Amino acid sequence: MNNRKVTRARYRFVALDVSKYRLLFIALLVGLGTGLLSSLFRLILARLATFRTTFQIGEIDQGWQDWLWPMLFTFFGIWFSIFLVKKYAPETAGSGIQEIEGALDGLRPIRWRKVLPVKFIASLFSLSSGLLLGREGPTVQIGANVGKMADDIFKQPVEEDNPLISAGAASGLASAFNAPFAGIIFVIEEMNGHFKFNFYSVAALMIGAGSADMVVRLLVGGGPILKTTIFTFEELSGIWLFVLLGLVLSVVGIMFNKFLIKSLDLFKKLKVSYITIALCMAFIITAVGLYSEDMIGAGYTTISHVYNSSFTLKFLLALFVVRFILSILSYGSGVPGGIFTPLITLGIILGMLFGGIAQYFFPDLVPDPAIFGVAGMAGIFASTIRAPLTGLALSVEMTANYELILPLIFTAVTASVCTTMLGNTPIYATLLKRALQTEKF
């Protein structure tokens, strides 16, 4: 009798292990699928990025061509993107990360049959139009929907929804920035109230993020996304400057979050047609872009120019203010797109501005202002998203500045703690609450 009980228990354990191994195998498929879609997304987006400013229109005079084609291209991209979102899948507007958090709590549906094509196509148009939006929001939502698709196809138990959707989200962030560790940390930290934490779910995250990053490196390319100087940090007497930068960024984070919500409310209250919104945004983006291309777009080119060009402090301040306003308006317009990249760009600009001022007053403590640019990435992420570990991981993986972990910790912790004490709610929690109150489909 006792032998029978032992045998039954052994069979149960074997069955349990088999089901968990099956989960990990499906997580691998989710990572590979997300990496493939993200690679295709990035490759197409890279082609479209130059199309806006290089297309020639017949024999039109160059003066007209400078603004007419970018205006038309931007207008159509914004209009078509909003049209797809409003008509077929409203949950694809904006980043989509709040939708994933709601889905993990069972508060929002995941309609992957509609979301995958709409998010993919609409995001290509919105991101290539010159709006200040990032590719990470679309890839995270696409990855999570791939996770739900795999869950439905393989008919997984209901309790397996969470790790597969989470693995897809981690894969999406990893494949957007070549940052698998940040993808894992983001789900654990930012989605900690939604993610069901256990050994196998964490293993699924790691497998998904790692396999997605592997596919992207094979198809798109490896290495850090941002090509910057590799710094060392040995002068501990200047650590207080990173704390001070964190204080500044905590205030910036509060302002960004509040104005972002106000922008969404403003566009909703206007009750104007898609054409009007697209026309107004196209005019603004084109006019600003004609003055300086660094003031529009996701920010990768801007970051490169900020690091490699000798911009004056006055221009850096103007660049920060303009990009701050346009980032908020871009997201508020209702097109799909993420806020990570625009935020990172703002953090780098503000960090460089802070570093330039600090170098003027404390030249012995600041050998290179660019070191504060890297710290600004982590700090602004910590103050807006309230995810300091993710900000730290992203900053290090995107720049390969592993020796800056110590000062980045001081900046990120200061920014997140101070912004919390000042009452700043994490932006995705606010966006989810708003979506639950105002959007039904």
UniProtKB/TrEMBL annotation:
GO terms for cellular component: chloride channel complex. Keywords: Chloride, Chloride channel, Ion channel, Ion transport, Membrane, Transmembrane, Transmembrane helix, Transport. PANTHER family: CHLORIDE CHANNEL PROTEIN CLC-E. Gene3D superfamilies: Clc chloride channel. It is a multi-pass membrane protein. The chain crosses the membrane at residues 21-45, 67-85, 199-219, 239-260, 272-291, 311-332, 339-358, 370-392, 404-423. The keyword Transmembrane helix applies. GO terms for molecular function: chloride channel activity. InterPro entries: Cl-channel_core, ClC, ClC-type_chloride_channel. This is Cl-channel voltage-gated family protein. Its main location: membrane. It is found in: Membrane.
